[in-house]
Amino acid sequence: MLTLHHGESLHVDTPGGGGYGDPLERGPEAVQQDVYDRRVIVLMAREQYGVVLQEPALVVDQEATQCLRMALRAQRVEA
Fold first, then answer.
1. 58: domain range?
2. Rounded to 5 degrees, what are φ and ψ at 23?
């Protein structure tokens, strides 16, 4: 437990938006916008959302995204 006293403050940064639902169902273009807005880094777009962005322009690779998402879903079944 943390006690704050008068005049003190606490700042917390959290990764991503902390939304709800399956991250693999989030639209690739929405994830791309999150990267543009610096809410998500390219690595997390790939690992958490299954979205492949071609650098440096950060263009969504639709085919690679579809394949990666299928592979990530298959890993869930195996676990």
1. 25-78
2. -60, -25
Q: Give the tokens for residue 54.
A: 């071609």
User: pTM score > 0.90 for this model?
Assistant: no
Q: What is the pLDDT along the chain (79 residues), one digit of tens a residue?
A: 889 999 999 887 766 556 788 999 999 999 999 999 998 999 999 999 999 999 999 999 999 999 999 999 999 988 6
**Cβ atoms 69, 23 nearer than 8 A:** no
Give Rg (Cα) of the chain: 16
In a domain, 13, yes or no: no
How many structural domains comprise the chain? 1
CA pair distance 60, 25, nearest whole angstrom: 15
72 is a domain residue: yes
